[in-house]
Fold this sequence. Notes:
heterodimer; A: alpha/beta; six-stranded mixed sheet; four-stranded antiparallel sheet; B: 253 residues; 11 helices; flat
Amino acid sequence: MVVLENLTKAYGNFTAVKGLNLSVYAGEICVLIGPSGCGKTTTLRMINRLVEPSSGRILIQGQDQRSLPKEDLRRRMGYVIQGIGLFDHMTVAQNVGIVPRLLGWSKEKIAGRVDELLDLVGLNPREYREKYPAQLSGGQQQRVGVARALAADPPILLMDEPFGSLDPITRAHLQDELLRIQRGLRKTIVFVTHDIDEAIKLGDRIAVMKDGYLVQYAPPRELLQEPADDFVADFVGADRALKALGLLHLAEVLEASPPVVMSDDPEMVLQAAREKGAAYVFRVDGDGLLLGCYEATSLGRGRPRLLSAKAFTVLPEATVRETLSAMIAVGFRDLAVVDREGRLVGWVPRRKVLAFLQQAESGEVRL
Amino acid sequence: MRALRPFLEAAVALGLLVGFFTLDDLHIHVLRSIWPQYADELPFEGGNMLELGLRTVELVLISTTFCIAIGLPLGILATRPSFREEFAPLANALANAGQTIPSLAIVALALPLLGLGMIPAIVAMVVHGILPILRNTVAALESVNPAQLDAGRGMGMTGGQLLLLVEMPHAFPVILAGIRTSAVLNVGVAVLSGLIGAGGLGAAIVHGLDLQVSPLVWYGAVPTALLAVTLDFFLGRLEQVLVPAGLRLKGAA
């Protein structure tokens, strides 16, 4: 746990951080967010003493961080920065192994750790160990940056807009990877960003800062439901209800047994549709793989036509927001929930979504 | 094979140079046949071409070593955080002054102050040759990407570790270019030092000019020019070999 107590940083007449009190809980991702100049980066840099506070103190696991020499303190925290923080005269392996090297580990131990970490961040060690940063894409460089910060297994990780310079697709991918890694490692992470979507996606708690003050410190859902003031409400955006849907898992609107048939017998299709109150019936094969769907309302004589169901599917890990978006995109029809192997594992009937939205309207479900 | 290429090229250049210097009889024969009226002036009383050349190389090596030994630490010191503001401009001004004074004037000044011989010559060469090394060291260290310094500091490097592991590898190519400039410059001053009795190829040139004997001037000047060109080439190849691979890739990208 990292506790910031009454932390202030002044540069001459300008006060960047004003009496900040903040507790970062162990094993959580705490996101510092706010507009440029709000003091979020200064706050982060005070934690590893790249910036010395003017007053106040920082406790790390109950101990004043000034009781350790700066260098020792920093070696116990991973540090990831935006852009070219990698040493471009060193190979990937040398970059990742730098903190262990500073700590005096043996060569064999470092080599083993480097391979382990490259695996963890999704880079094949044999392929990437000896490459130089200039030979990597931006996303790969940032993965190496994360691996480097994790090298000496520090309990605390400081990340300063690590994905800021990446394209949206790579950024989303690396965010997912960070969450995956975090599920396994449970580090205490302080993450600076100015992207509210990134904050909502990654943060266990979000600290919104403005002009050096902490405006609100809350879990993402609370931030979206009860913004402390107009500034926070503006900052999280007018679409905060939709963003809140992004925090809800598909389970809220999922039904386990979809209307399915295993043949194109019109009778069977009609019966399945009636049973489930569905407009569409999904066709699967013997292994449960989704082959397509039939439109139950337009059944005529003869064999029904099998339609492609590709647009009507969502992944089991999707959020309510993604589900709703997919549903709107296909004209508000029932969706099939299909896993990565193509197996039909459930469905989202539109009546369920409508019911969910009604509950939200009446206050039974809070968005 | 590609990695060996700079070594091969340097070896060939060195071989050609040594070959040229050992063909003393041939050079004397050619010069005598062009200027038969000065046949008595050759061989040069100060020594054969190889001896003269070795003396010049000695002067250049000693003075360049001193230039590095003074200029490099001074440049590093001038860019340390605690000195940067006061010392970097001072070091630059000092070194600039050293180069603004014409080399001939430095050599001429060394004579009344330090007398004749190798030592005053070396002092003159060092005063003159520090500038490129000092200036390049300061410029190179100041141009290291701040993000990398931040990353290094943030992961717990001490000032010394930051210098050795991050700053120097990045600054290295530019510092080496400064050393190269300094060494080639020193060849020129070494020749001028013939005026104050430092010997070497400069002695033949100065003597030839004094007596207005053209073949003697040629006897000193041609190998001097060859020496400077070869030295420059040699150090250029060294640069290729010593620049860290990751930086070369970055330059190419």
